[in-house]
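User: Okay, second chain of the day. Same drill as before: sequence in, structure tokens out.
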Amino acid sequence: MAYIPNWNKEIKQLICKLEVENHYPDDNLIICYKDFLRIRDYLHCYQFNPTVFKSLVELTINLWETKEKINRLSLLTAIKRYHYNNSKRLLELDIQTKKHIFVLFKNTFEKAQFLTEKQVVAAQSLFNPLLISLSLTSEEEKWFCDNEGKTPFILNRILRYPVRSKIISQWVTEHFHSDKLRTRRAEAVGWILDENPDFIIDEQTLIDDFEHANLLDIEKIKSDSFHYGYRGGTVIKRFYTKLEIPADSNSLPDFECVRKYFYDNFDTIKRQTMLWAAAYSRLDIQQKIDLLKKYYSDELFVSLFNIGKKYKLIEILKWLQPKAKNHKDVSQKKISEEKFEDRELGEMPF
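Assistant: Same drill. Structure tokens below.
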């Protein structure tokens, strides 16, 4: 049966949306849950008002354990949508509001009984992007580290935390050789560089990381959930080469070919790891630039170009410019393919 819209409702909602579009809302737009229900469908159309955002976050916290009938996921969704086009404005929020955002994320774990099972997963996914780029206090940093195993989102928040943290550097040091960091090596090394800029990744760790990735891929390919065929199967992203998946299930990929490439290009792969580790680090800009120049080699032109572009490092791009004449054969496809360990769960790659 074809869907027949409620035209009266559709027109009413559209009028409300157009009336508030790009309008700066009053500070008291949302005081209670009734206010929220009145404007939730078009709140995101308003200009960003930090006071309104703060009120919505506080309202959600205050109502989290209420026995009244409310839609907590709807509140969380509204917070996410209002933030979506104003993510940079979150950096301007006071520390208490930032902590409140964290509290709501934590509630999806520690007070998840107020959500359905499906809502828990959705809520955690919704709030993960709000924590990107937010610097918090040592209390929140420690909670991230203590609860890393609960969801991959938390590991992302640890490794992508925007400012230096001795707590996180210590956690990475303690877990440096654990499997959880083997496919996130450059980010992990970045945290070590924060405390020791002279650190260099050892060869055995890189070899162990490589073999671990192979084992993960073999296990996944042999599992019932893996699908062969065009874009049918996803394996570990290797920044240095691509693992070709066969079209059918009669054979495994050619791991020996990948292994030969790995060992033949080991020095370059080690340099590339250190290059991206320096980029991910939270060192001051001059220290970072010095390390990028230190680990650069001509084979890593594309890597350094991507780093300079991603982090807006004008000095590095100027330093790289004279070397471009030796790399006229580098295609745009090659540049765009190198997404070194940089895909977030539910987030955009660079």
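Residues 340-350 have pLDDT under 50 and may be disordered.

User: Thanks, on to the next one.
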